[in-house]
Amino acid sequence: MDTRSHFILALCATLALAGGHAAAAGAPQRVPVRAGVLLQAAPAAGTPPSGLLAARTRWEGEDAACSARAPVGTLAVLGGYQWKVEPGGEFMRRSYGARLHLFDTRSGKALRTIVFHELAEGGRGAAGISAPIACAFTPDGQRLIALSGSKLALYGVENGYLLGAEKFHLGADQAELKFYKVGQRQFVRVSSARLQADFALDGP
Q: Under a CB-based contact definition with an 8 Å cutoff, are residues 176 and 153 in contact?
């Protein structure tokens, strides 16, 4: 079994149990996420040792960060926060990224993986910027929206194509996504302790 399937199956049962009934129209269903699912265990909670061992070792993993079910059917998404620690001269080099895993809750089959943030080197602050802190399907189930501390992105569910993205500084590690309509136009509201912003999901 590959690491992506292992990551998905670790939480698939939780999603299936929590999603016994479809979400209410216009509101993404919230699903509890069990954090800290590592693909490769690291000693001392991911803190690399010093000395010779550190020079020969690297750690990498992916932690569950957000999840949601489609309004109808058995499609779900699990947002993963990637991290990697490896030797880099005098100090250890840290890289962060994020992916969105689409899968079927009934079979546990992985359907598609979307790169939300490329795995890239950064300091400690990059962890909060890259992690997908919220994700949801649009009410029609045809599009997927994901939010991190630095970006809001919209993807097509069928092919995983990026349909639009907005970069901004959220300044929080928790947020909510809420869909609403004004006339025929679809909007999403991003709400956190420090920010509330509205974005149109359709053309002007």
A: no
Gap between the Cα atoms of 93 and 86, Å rounded: 5
How far, in Å, CA of 52 to CA of 7, rounded? 31
Contacts of 62 (CB under 8 A, 6+ apart): 3, 7, 37, 38, 39, 80, 81, 82, 83, 99
pLDDT tens digits for 79-89?
A: 999 988 887 76
Which of 91, 106, 102 is closest to 67 using CA atoms? 102
Number of Cβ within 10 Å of residue 199's Cβ equals 16
DSSP 48: P
> Which distant-in-sequence residues (6+ apart) come within 8 Å of 156 by Cβ?
142, 143, 144, 163
What local confidence, expressed as pLDDT, does residue 43 receive? Answer: 36
Cα gap 14→12, rounded to integer Å? 5
Burial of 48 (0-12, 13-18, 19+ CB in 10 A): middle
Burial class (CB in 10 A: 0-12, 13-18, 19+), 107: exposed
Structure tokens at 66: 């957000």
pLDDT of 60 above 70: yes
Which H or E run includes 164?
Answer: strand 162-167
Cα–Cα dist 34/10, whole Å: 9
